[in-house]
Amino acid sequence: MCTWFDLCDARRHFAIVVPRRATTCPTLLNAIFALSSRHLSLHEQYDPYASDRYHQECLKHLTTISNDSSALTNDDLLAATILLRTLEELDVPLIGTDHEGHLLGIQLFMNTQNASALDPPSSLRQASFWVGLRQEITMAFATQRPIKVKLDHLFIDRSFSPADDDCWANRIVVHCAEVVQFCFGEVENRKSEYQRLVEYDYNWLRARPLSWLPIAYSEPDLSSGLVFPQIFYINHAVVIGNVHGALARALLMCHDESIPKIGPSRIRARQKLDNDIRMQVRELCGAALSNKQTIPAMFTACMGVTACGDRFVEYAEQKALLDILVKTDVEHMWPTASAQSHLKRAWGWEDGS
Predict the structure, then answer these.
(1) Is residue 133 included in any domain, yes or no?
(2) Which keywords belong to this entry (predicted)?
(3) Whether pLDDT at 19 is above 60
(4) What's CA 218's distance to the chain center, in Å?
(5) One domain for residues 61 and 164
(6) Tell me: the pLDDT tens digits for 172-187?
(7) Using an 8 Å Cβ cutoff, are 116 and 153 in contact?
(8) Fewest CB within 10 A of the end CB: N or C in the chain?
(9) How many domains would you assign to the chain?
């Protein structure tokens, strides 16, 4: 499962550094065991209670850290909390709700870092931050609430200067977080902030390296059952960056306040906007389905489907969108049952259609 965490991390901290540090940190070791055993129990015959035992061992330590400032700067405990948050997400279908307990812990850890500190955080802490931010985006979107993680840390790079793929991906992930903040948070001068976000996306698209373009692309072919385009990218970071960019773009379009409210041009403008949104969702879904090794891209695709799926009117496309939600739930144990129900109602489908 380390690939889930190291998507935008060429140094592969969760695959290489975290296991090594777990040998001297029992809480981190138990977090690894808790997540791994839960994942095994969901996919095959494995003790379904093993994860709970390891989880309880973690909680014995983590429940005391809120009053311990030194613990909040402990990179091992932050990494453990990142792992346990993923466990929490996998457990949603089992317990029926998401208490966001470990997400609150991540926010506490990540917001402790002083944005004006002269000493930069460790590479593990930065790697954990980016994983935690992607988790925060998912939950903020799902619950339609503001982003609760600080986005003013000095190590966050929003520039367009030459950089590696990880940096380019993280730039657009931060942008996506700011878009979610715009959609669901309190924003002063929304008109100027909206324009700033649109311009950043435009400039990011123009400045990104040529390696960020697809290495292979084919248009949808409804006659052969191919509803979404096939879009193949060169590595995990490029996939994650592009799907977050597409999601952010679609969300911004959904909040476009320049559309006329009345008059003969309203319908035409609305139709064009809906077409543009559908195009972004098709690209998002196509990228997620094409790059099967980048599993979390499917989670981002589900967010796009949930947000914009009601704008699709063709049955073939509706069925394909629903299939993405079902596939993500069944194959990757990511809960989408609620989203499936909401879309079916929005489309006017009867239960079981």
Answers:
(1) no
(2) Nucleus
(3) yes
(4) 25
(5) no
(6) 999 999 999 999 998 8
(7) no
(8) C
(9) 2
